[in-house]
């Protein structure tokens, strides 16, 4: 099982992706990971995912990891690119839900156009939930790990009804407030407060929400540890 690297373009975007196709002769969900490099490289998610896929109750999946930078960009553009793409950006949401999914469906006839899964962490955890709310038919399940829902504080962002399943997690050490991440990103409330408020709001809008407070902070190790349990819940319950 080796990741294929490709370039997906559309909707004014171009992003490298890393792709592991599921069976072409069996209809199956597509599982998209935003912040792709963090998942397959920093979290070494493939090891956990390959083990998960051996479980009889887990359906086959196509796995697709989307880069968090545009082709040719490097470290200087990294923070600005993530901020632009992952703070409830409708154009980026359209790129993922339409262009990237269309690419995957065209590539593998077994990939479904509906009932798929989208995953993200930190800022991309915020965007993964936002994409699910905008495209509930395409994505019926969302994993948001330490999602930066504090960004919503004080913003009048009108969100649609929730018609999906959401696993929202946060670490018990994510208590910091008043954090200036950059000129554009100031965090007034804690990560915990932002996630808990969003979990309540999604439930109130009709979503099915599993809230998980893990032991630890904003780090790859606890995110990797909860990856299999989270996807198991999203895919089988």
Number of domains: 1
Q: What class, by secondary structure content?
A: alpha/beta
Distance between the termini: 27 Å
**What's the overall geometry?**
globular
CA gyration radius, whole angstroms: 17 Å
The helix count comes to 7
Unreliable residue stretches: none
> What is the H level of CATH, i.e. the homologous superfamily?
Alpha/Beta hydrolase fold, catalytic domain
Number of strands: 10
CATH architecture: 3-Layer(aba) Sandwich
* Helix percentage range: 25-40%
Strand order of the largest sheet: 1-2-4-3-5-6-7-10
The average pLDDT value, as a whole number, equals 94
Question: Which CATH class applies here?
Answer: Alpha Beta
CATH topology: Rossmann fold
Main sheet characteristics: 8 strands, mixed
Spell the H/E element sequence. EEEHHEHHEHEEEEHEH
Share in β-strands: 15-25%
């Amino acid at each position: 099982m080796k990741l294929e690297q490709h370039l997906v373009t559309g909707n004014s975007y171009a992003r490298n992706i890393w792709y592991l196709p599921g069976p072409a002769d069996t209809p199956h969900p597509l599982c998209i990971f935003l912040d792709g490099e963090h998942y397959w490289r920093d979290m070494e998610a493939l090891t956990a995912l390959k083990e998960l896929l051996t479980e009889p109750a887990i359906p086959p999946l196509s796995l697709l990891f989307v880069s968090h930078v545009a082709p040719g960009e490097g470290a200087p553009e990294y923070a600005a690119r993530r901020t632009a793409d992952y703070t409830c950006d409708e154009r980026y949401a359209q790129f993922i839900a339409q262009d990237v999914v269309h690419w995957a469906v065209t590539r593998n006839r077994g990939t479904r156009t509906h009932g798929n899964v989208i995953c993200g962490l930190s800022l991309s955890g915020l965007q993964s939930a936002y994409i699910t709310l905008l495209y509930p038919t395409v994505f019926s399940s969302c994993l948001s790990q330490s999602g930066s829902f504090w960004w919503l504080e004080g913003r009048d962002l009108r969100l649609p009804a929730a018609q999906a399943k959401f696993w929202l997690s946060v670490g018990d050490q994510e208590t910091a407030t008043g954090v200036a991440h950059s000129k554009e990103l100031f965090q007034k409330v804690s990560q915990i407060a932002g996630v808990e408020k969003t979990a309540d709001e999604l439930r109130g809008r009709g979503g099915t929400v599993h809230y998980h407070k893990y032991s630890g902070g904003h780090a790859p190790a606890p995110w990797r540890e909860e990856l299999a349990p989270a996807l198991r819940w999203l895919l089988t319950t």
